[in-house]
């Protein structure tokens, strides 16, 4: 039977996930994708609020905030270093590993802030909120306890999650592409985009699987040492 503490954590996670999803949907519906700055800021606030709330209640210390900032910087750098190779980037793997090692809240924070921060280099636009949401949810789901345990223990499960994360990101971003054409959703157009992007999607999926498995143990050991050395809980 799930403990009371575990049940409370799970309830909080679901509530936060629903709030984030509602912020995204409400932003897109109310402001349209053209007002991407407003939607992006809503997602930034939604992502940061739980962390800063815990900080104000003394449940998180400045060392953990610095660690999160470093992970975001590494994720952004990894995207920049591989920008000349289409569909190949370790950024998604670092977001996944952040969620596995530090939990769902941190996973979403690293994913969403890495997207908006890296787009300072690659260009902000109506696609930014969609990238923030999709990368954030990839990090969040990786930190869900029952999945988190399996991802830590089995490389094949980690590789499978990397592949599924790639499909989710590609399928979700193609939604934005369809809406961006004339603000109307068409299944025919969506399927055409999915089919035309198959080589890119496959490359991205297997790049996620490779980098997740290749980097996981190294980053996990480093994070464990930092958590113990600086007494970060």
From TrEMBL:
<keyword id="KW-0812">Transmembrane</keyword>
<feature type="transmembrane region" description="Helical">
    <location>
        <begin position="36"/>
        <end position="53"/>
    </location>
</feature>
<feature type="transmembrane region" description="Helical">
    <location>
        <begin position="65"/>
        <end position="85"/>
    </location>
</feature>
<feature type="transmembrane region" description="Helical">
    <location>
        <begin position="12"/>
        <end position="30"/>
    </location>
</feature>
<protein>
    <recommendedName>
        <fullName>ECF transporter S component</fullName>
    </recommendedName>
</protein>
<feature type="transmembrane region" description="Helical">
    <location>
        <begin position="155"/>
        <end position="179"/>
    </location>
</feature>
<keyword id="KW-1133">Transmembrane helix</keyword>
<feature type="transmembrane region" description="Helical">
    <location>
        <begin position="91"/>
        <end position="116"/>
    </location>
</feature>
<dbReference type="GO" id="GO:0022857">
    <property type="term" value="F:transmembrane transporter activity"/>
</dbReference>
<dbReference type="InterPro" id="IPR024529">
    <property type="entry name" value="ECF_trnsprt_substrate-spec"/>
</dbReference>
<keyword id="KW-0472">Membrane</keyword>
<feature type="transmembrane region" description="Helical">
    <location>
        <begin position="191"/>
        <end position="216"/>
    </location>
</feature>
<dbReference type="Pfam" id="PF12822">
    <property type="entry name" value="ECF_trnsprt"/>
</dbReference>
């Amino acid at each position: 039977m799930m403990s009371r503490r575990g049940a409370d954590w799970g309830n909080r996670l679901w509530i936060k996930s629903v709030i984030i999803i509602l912020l995204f949907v409400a932003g897109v519906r109310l402001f349209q994708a053209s007002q991407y700055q407003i939607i992006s800021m809503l997602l930034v606030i939604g992502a940061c609020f739980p962390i800063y709330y815990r900080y104000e209640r003394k449940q998180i210390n400045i060392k953990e905030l610095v660690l999160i900032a470093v992970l975001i910087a590494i994720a952004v750098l990894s995207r920049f270093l591989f920008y000349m190779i289409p569909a190949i980037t370790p950024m998604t793997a670092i977001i996944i590993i952040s969620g596995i090692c530090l939990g769902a809240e941190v996973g979403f924070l690293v994913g969403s802030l890495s997207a908006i921060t890296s787009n300072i280099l690659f260009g902000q636009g109506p696609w930014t909120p969609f990238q923030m949401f999709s990368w954030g949810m990839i990090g969040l789901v990786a930190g869900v306890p029952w999945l988190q345990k399996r991802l830590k223990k089995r490389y094949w499960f980690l590789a499978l999650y990397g592949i599924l994360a790639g499909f989710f990101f590609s399928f979700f971003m193609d939604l934005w592409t369809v809406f961006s054409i004339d603000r109307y959703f068409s299944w025919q157009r969506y399927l055409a985009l999915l089919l035309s992007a198959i080589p890119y999607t496959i490359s991205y999926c297997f790049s996620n699987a490779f980098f997740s498995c290749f980097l996981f143990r190294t980053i996990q050991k480093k994070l464990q040492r930092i958590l113990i050395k600086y007494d970060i809980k």
